[in-house]
Design brief:
Blueprint lengths: L2 H12 L13 H32 L10 H7 L16 E3 L8 E9 L2 E8 L7 H10 L4 E4 L4 E2 L2 E2 L12 E6 L2 E12 L10 E9 L5 E9 L13 H9 L6 E4 L5 H17 L7 H9 L9 H17 L6 H17 L2
Parallel strand pairs: 3-11, 4-10, 4-11
Antiparallel strand pairs: 1-2, 2-3, 5-6, 7-8, 8-9, 9-10
Length: about 350
């Protein structure tokens, strides 16, 4: 086990107030309670099947209401936005405070049912926004970052090299007269305990700010999740979310635009939060509307929307929360249709 995994495992045991790990085997009572919670979600998913869920997703059209994104428009001329057509909502955007020379960063807080600031969804840092990004992490006491893209994808630059590695063990970024230093501590290939094919590098860094403050952060780089596509619908993302859940500060998630792959992760945790809190799980379309009200246009493709449903159905099956013969047959049919939809 890597030094990163050991440290996170230790911190997990020391915090008894946290919800139990989702990958642990539930007791019979927990299984009975969870079964009640998921019935509506599973019924909705299996009634629609992938073809119906695709139509459901298409009906929830994506759009930008720039009257709700005034700060985003003003920041455009300063080169602080990666994409002109990926807006940042004003109502819950992250604002950089003193002593930073400006407040804008393309980032939004996104809530889950029990945590008002569970996530910060943001764009991949640009060369001129790296200092902003790391100051945000300091300000918000971020312990966990999920990076879901690569620096270059399909020949296009998707992210600036904003975090240190063994080759570049210390990086310095400046904004005006303010300086941020990010120091490499350790890194390793993340070792999944569940059935998972994802390639993830876990890097521990220390961020030091302009006023002497510092923050230890674990950076998880998922380097084989395809742009606008989906990875295998196994337990990888649920295990990473489980690992990050004890974080007291927001979990920072970004891909390139910070809405597609990022939105998929947020939607999965939204459902797991309802499950762990003993709440009935809402239908996927209702959940996505609530997420998009916080991070505009979250989840970009029907494949990503289907991926979220397939991961959850696989998880419910793995935990024996859907054991009836008729349901099992429907799940098999769903898997077969899903495979044809996301090729």
């Amino acid at each position: 086990m890597s030094s990163v995994n050991k440290k996170r495992k230790g911190s997990r045991k020391s915090d008894n107030s946290q919800k139990s790990a989702v990958l642990d085997e539930p007791t019979n009572l927990e299984r009975k309670q969870q079964k009640k919670q998921i019935i509506k979600f599973v019924s909705h998913s299996l009634e629609k099947m992938p073809s119906g869920l695709r139509q459901e997703f298409v009906s929830m059209k994506r759009f930008n209401d720039f009257e709700k994104m005034k700060a985003f428009k003003e920041a455009q001329e300063h080169g602080k936005n990666r994409y002109k057509d990926v807006g940042c909502l004003d109502n819950n955007r992250v604002k950089l405070g003193s002593p930073w020379p400006h407040e804008y960063i393309h980032a939004n807080y996104v809530a889950t049912p029990t945590m008002p600031k569970r996530f910060i969804c943001t764009q991949a840092p640009l060369e001129k926004t790296c200092a902003d990004f790391w100051f945000m992490c300091l300000q918000e006491k971020v312990e966990t970052i999920f990076m879901l893209c690569n620096l270059v994808e399909k020949g296009s630059k998707k992210c600036y090299e904003y975090y240190p590695s063994k080759k570049k063990d210390t990086l310095e970024f400046e904004e005006g007269d303010k300086k941020i230093t990010v120091k490499y501590e350790s890194s390793s290939q993340y070792s999944f305990k569940a059935d998972a094919k994802a390639k993830v590098i876990a890097t521990e860094v220390v961020v030091e700010g302009p006023s002497g403050e510092s923050q230890k952060t674990i950076h998880y780089h998922w380097n084989d999740w395809p742009d606008r596509g989906v990875p295998p619908a196994d337990m990888a993302i649920l295990e990473l979310l489980d690992r990050a859940r004890p974080s007291k500060g927001p979990i920072v998630v970004h891909c390139s635009a910070g809405i597609g792959r990022t939105g998929s992760v947020v939607m999965l945790e939204y459902v797991m939060d309802q499950l762990l809190a003993g709440m009935q799980i809402e239908d996927g379309d209702k959940i996505l509307v609530k997420i998009r009200e916080q991070r505009n246009n979250s989840i970009q493709t029907d494949a990503q929307y289907l991926f979220v449903h397939q991961v959850l159905l696989n998880y419910f099956r793995k935990k024996k929360l859907v054991e009836e013969k008729g349901v099992q047959d429907a799940l098999d049919a769903f898997v077969e249709q899903y495979g044809k939809c996301v090729v």
